[in-house]
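Supplementary Note 2. Why include the ligand at all?

Several targets in our set were suspected to adopt different conformations when bound, so apo predictions alone were not considered sufficient. For every target with a known small-molecule partner we therefore ran a joint prediction. The input for zinc ion is given below.
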Amino acid sequence: MTEFNWSDILGNEEKIRQIREMINSQQFPNAVIFSGLEGIGKKKIAETAAISLLCESDDKPCGHCPSCRAFMTASHPDYYYMEPGRSKANPMIKIDQVRALQREVSLMPVMSNLRMVIIDDSELMNSAAQNCLLKTIEEPSGLSKFILITSNRSRLLMTLRSRCMIINFERLSEDNIKRGLETKNIDNATEIAVISNGSLGQAFKLAENDGLKIREDVLNFVELLSKMTIEDIFGKGQSMSTQTKENFRDWIIHFQKILRDLLIVNTDIDKGYYYNRDLRNKLLKLRSRFSDSAVFAMMQEAAEIQRRLNSNANLELLIESFFIKLRRNTQSMSS
Ligand SMILES: [Zn+2]
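The joint prediction is reproduced in C-alpha cell form.
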C-alpha cells in the first residue's frame, strides 16, 4: 500500500499551494500539463493530486475513505495511469493505448463522481496519438480530468498544449535533495546533493551507481593525465573496458562536467553554474596545467565517444583509442 501526503512532497511549495487550492475549491482544470526537469517529483505530485481529487472527505487526501483506500492499493476503478511501452530502445505511447483510454473515459465513473487520468512521459506520444488524446480530452461528458507529465513540453503539439493549463515545476534546492536522500538513509547526502543538478531522481541514480566514486576516479585521472606514460594510458583503458558500457557512459558524463567546470573555473562566471562547486579549489589548481585548447580538445573527444558509444563499435577498442587521443591532445597542447 502506498501512502500519499502533501507534506511528503519536497520543494515547489508555491505551486503545491496553488494546486491544493484549486482542488479544494473545485477549480482544478480538466486538463493540466505538469512540466519540468526529470526527477523532481512530478509524478508523485500528480498522484497526490489524483487521490485528492477522488477523495470523498474534506481534508484531501484523507487516506481512509473508500476512494483513498482503493487508490492506495492500486485498485481504484476510476483511476487510469498510462506510460510508454517498456521497449528501452524506442519507448513510446502508441495510438492503441490512447484509443483504449478513450473507450474507458466514455463510460461513467464507477466509484467517484469523476475519473482521473495520468499520462506519464506524455511527450512520447507520436502526433497521431496526441491528436487522439486531444479528442478524448474534449469529450463532452467532462467527467474525466487529465494530468499530462512531461520533461520535454516542446514535443507536445501546440493544439494539445493550448488545451491544457501548464504548471511548470522548478529544480529542487540542495537542502531538499539532501532531505530526500536522508529519508532513504543514503550516505554522503551533502556531496551528492551538490552535483545532482536539482533533480532528486538524478541524486538517487548517483547514489546507486557510486556516482561519487566515479567522479573521484575522473578527477584523479585528470590530475595525472599530463604525466601519464603510454603504459599508464593502456592500463587505464584496459581497466575501464572490463566495466559495463553504462559505467563507462557515467564516467564520460562526469568527465564532461569536470572539463566544463575547468573551463570556467578561472573566470568571473557565477558559482551557480558549476556542476562540481565543491571541487572548485582543486579545479583552480588543475586549471593551470591545461591550455584552453587542450580542454576544448578533450571536450570534443568526450562528445565524440559519447556519440560512438551508441553505435555497435567494439567497446574495448573504442575506450582504448579514446584514452590515447586524450593523452595526445594534452601532451601536444599543454606546456
Ligand atoms: Zn479520502
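The CA atoms of residues 80 and 117 lie 5 Å apart. The chain has 15 helices and five strands. Comparable summaries for the other entries are listed in the accompanying table.
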